[in-house]
Design a protein that fits this description.
Helices cover 52% and strands 13% of the residues. The radius of gyration is 16 Å and the shape is globular. The longest helix has 21 residues. Strands 2-3-1-4-5 form a five-stranded parallel β-sheet, with helices on both faces. By secondary structure, the chain is of the alpha/beta class.
Length: 178
Amino acid sequence: MEKEIIVIIGGPGTGKTTIIDGLLSKGHCCYPEISREITLEAKKQGIEQLFLEKPLLFSELLLEGRKKQYNNAIAEPHSVVFIDRGIPDVLAYMHYIGDSYPAFFDEACKEHKYSKIFILPPWEEIYESDDARYENFEQAKLIYSHLTETYQNYGYSLIEVPRGTVEERIQFIFRHLS
């Protein structure tokens, strides 16, 4: 049985988590976005916005968490695992803020390969800010372009998921899996 590790990417507020939740409700194996739990843990330690205050530390924690998700996905008994954001997202965000990063970030992207990447384009009508999503819509569009470029630089062909209901978006993903 060949393992398929499917990543759903996109800038903030494009519906990734909603799609992951929809897939979970249908009984599919899914791994959530982990940046919020890292941010919450930092807040408990008195760091209000870890990504803004210590971007390299935040990114290292995110990288480790995403590598762990990847390895857990490989070990899953399920033949298909969906993940909300992948390892190259970490580099895309570092590019977005203009920060450099150690070579092991690049190595992690080369060593952990995903089966398919679905990208959700910016969608202003559903975009919402919250305490963990501080970017405005213009910044979300810029992040989208960094994500696109970063994943393509690692050899991925991105499949853009059109706007629609959650069910329509999930059906689109499944049509592109078979």
